[in-house]
Amino acid sequence: MSQFDVYPNPSKSKAHYPYLVDIQSSLLSDLATRIVIPLGKRSAFGGEGMQGLTPEISFADQELLLLTPQISSVPEKHLKNPVGSLSHFREQIVGALDLAVIGIYRLQHVRPRNGVEGAM
Predict the structure, then answer these.
(1) What angle do CA 116, 119, 120 make, to 5 degrees?
(2) Closest CA to 68 of 23, 16, 108, 110
(3) pLDDT tens for residues 74-109?
(4) Contacts from 22-28 at CB under 8 Å and sequence distance 24+?
(5) Residue of 112, 20, 110 whose CA lies nearest to 74
(6) Residue 72 neighbours by CB distance under 10 Å
(7) Distance CA 23, CA 30 (A)
(8) Which of 26, 30, 70, 100 has the fewest CB atoms found within 10 Å of its own CB?
(9) Where are the domains of the chain?
(10) pTM of the full structure
């Protein structure tokens, strides 16, 4: 399991929340659960997200919202086969978590592989 992998939602709520994003660090792989954030169909939520907290995500030809306020844990055994990754949305996901936890949305400062520093 990798951080930011996307899994089909195994629960009955999958009509409005088709996917779960695994946000848990690989350092916590010994836990029997995974920390996830549901992806909800944008149309089911009035078509608009909350700036920074519920970023819009395009995945599998769908417009979705990362529903950060609905963060949860799921037994690892319920997450079968990933259907994709949102690693390219890392900045928005971590920013949404920062906003939810500390009340500040900040860009993540990274050092790319080529050694040049900058914001993602």
Answers:
(1) 100
(2) 23
(3) 999 999 999 999 999 999 999 999 999 998 866 554
(4) 22/79, 22/82, 23/71, 23/93, 23/97, 26/1, 26/2
(5) 20
(6) 12
(7) 15
(8) 30
(9) 5-85
(10) 0.83
